[in-house]
């Protein structure tokens, strides 16, 4: 009798605990807003330095935790498809075929262009030739023998830099035995700095924003001047030449948000495309999609006379 009388109270306690647990889970889920919570963002490995800077400033201003997952371009795209509600940062927009995949899932990606960067060719300081014609690179990619080029070194066979040059050469796969790959831009930079005769292909922000442990290797590199396919002049991947559309290997950068709701992905994209984020881009040596305004303080006549 005593045991039976305790059953209703026990069942009531269990029900209360279940309700509390469900509420706790719901409250955790609802914690994420556009400026609060935690999120993982996939990023093309060639773009990681500039995104590291953006995340550091964003987290310092808001109660947010962003975990960057650095992958090759194709791996980043696949992660975006496999992770429902994901966010990715790429050096190209989604294709019609990719958009159709999301459309079938009833997801409309929010696409935010935020900067223009460039692909850079680098060689060892001991190489006196600092010029390269893009036509020679295209011919080399197509499998032709091009004496000025002994080998091209990429970060990854699934990299956005290799895909970009394959598109330029109108090929679908590697055709030249002189094309090599590692896993990261850091490995490419180290290898080129220590070996003569090869040309490295890297995202320019790995050079303009070299981390302290990479600066000694970057100092051993020449950034090559590039002649475009329809130009007779050579240009560097500098902020000015990118802005004037002279450098032939510039590319637009995008934040692809497939969350489907007003979450942290939307807040981060707005931040990067906003005034502070664009100033970070400008300071990094890349080109922001919109130039941040400058404030001028007009003093009184007495101060002007001073």
From TrEMBL:
PBP domain sequence ranges: 37-274
Signal peptide (UniProt feature, chain positions): 1-21
Classification lineage: Bacteria, Pseudomonadati, Bacteroidota, Flavobacteriia, Flavobacteriales
Keywords associated with the record: Signal
Domain of life: Bacteria
Organism of provenance: Flavobacterium psychrolimnae
Protein's name in the database: Phosphate ABC transporter substrate-binding protein
């Amino acid at each position: 009798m005593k045991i039976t009388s305790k059953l209703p109270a026990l069942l009531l306690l269990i029900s209360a605990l279940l309700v509390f647990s469900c509420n706790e889970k719901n409250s955790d889920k609802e914690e994420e807003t556009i400026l609060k919570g935690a999120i993982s963002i996939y990023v093309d490995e060639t773009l990681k330095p500039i995104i590291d800077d953006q995340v550091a400033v964003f987290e310092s201003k808001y109660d947010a935790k962003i975990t960057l997952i650095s992958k090759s371009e194709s791996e980043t795209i696949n992660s975006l498809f496999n992770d429902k509600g994901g966010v990715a940062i790429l050096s190209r927009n989604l294709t019609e075929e990719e958009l159709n995949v999301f459309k079938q899932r009833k997801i409309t990606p929010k696409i935010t262009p935020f900067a223009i960067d460039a692909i850079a060719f680098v060689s060892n300081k001991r190489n006196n030739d600092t010029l390269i014609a893009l036509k020679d690179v295209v011919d080399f990619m197509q499998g032709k023998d091009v004496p000025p080029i002994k080998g091209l070194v990429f970060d990854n066979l699934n990299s956005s830099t290799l895909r970009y040059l394959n598109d330029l050469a109108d090929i679908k796969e590697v055709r030249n035995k002189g094309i090599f790959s590692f896993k990261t831009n850091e490995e490419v930079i180290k290898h080129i700095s220590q070996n003569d005769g090869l040309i490295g292909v890297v995202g320019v922000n790995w050079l303009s924003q070299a981390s302290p442990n990479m600066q000694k290797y970057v100092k051993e590199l020449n950034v090559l001047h590039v002649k475009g396919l329809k130009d007779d002049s050579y240009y560097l991947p500098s902020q000015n030449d990118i802005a004037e559309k002279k450098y032939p290997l510039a590319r637009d950068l995008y934040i692809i948000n497939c969350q489907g709701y007003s979450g942290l992905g939307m807040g981060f994209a707005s931040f990067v495309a906003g005034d502070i984020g664009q100033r970070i881009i400008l300071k990094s040596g890349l080109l922001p999609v919109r130039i941040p305004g400058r404030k001028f303080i007009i003093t009184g006549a007495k101060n002007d006379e001073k």
